[in-house]
Amino acid sequence: MKTKSGVMLGLGESFDEILETMDDLRSVNVDVLTLGQYLQPTPKHLPVLEFITPEIFEQLKEIGLKKGFRYVESGPLVRSSYHAEKHLF
Predict the structure, then answer these.
(1) Strands (E), the chain
(2) How far apart are CA 50 and CA 63, in angstroms?
(3) What angle do helix axes 54-66 and 15-27 make, rounded to 10 degrees?
(4) Is residue 11 part of a domain?
(5) Over the stretch 39-85, which tens digit does the pLDDT of each residue have?
(6) Could you give the CA distance from residue 48 to residue 29 in angstroms, rounded to a whole number?
(7) CA distances from 67 to 22, 57, 63, 70, 72 (A)
């Protein structure tokens, strides 16, 4: 069985919290990770606190692969089903 999880960034989390979340996901054998930018869908939803740069998304992808994820999709427009066909391995 393949397992997958996704995290939306930009809600005030620290870099260390992102890394800790990655570690937690790997500790339960999650195989595929998606990391994307949270975008406020309506004024009633939580506001974006930070826009993550493409360089940080790339850095997080590299870190995730080193941590043992089999596939990491990381970028500002990435959503949980982003390029889902690539996750089949």
Answers:
(1) 4-9, 32-37, 71-74
(2) 20
(3) 30
(4) yes
(5) 999 999 999 999 999 999 999 999 999 999 999 999 999 987 756 56
(6) 30
(7) 8, 15, 6, 9, 11
pLDDT value at 86 more than 80? no
Please tell me the pTM assigned to this model. 0.89
Report the number of distinct structural domains present in the chain: 1
The span from the CA of 70 to the CA of 7, in Å, is 16
| Domain membership flag for residue 14 | yes
Range of the domain at 38: 4-80
Q: Rounded CA gap, 65 and 63, in Å? A: 5
Does residue 86 sit within a domain? no
Specify if 15 maps to a domain: yes
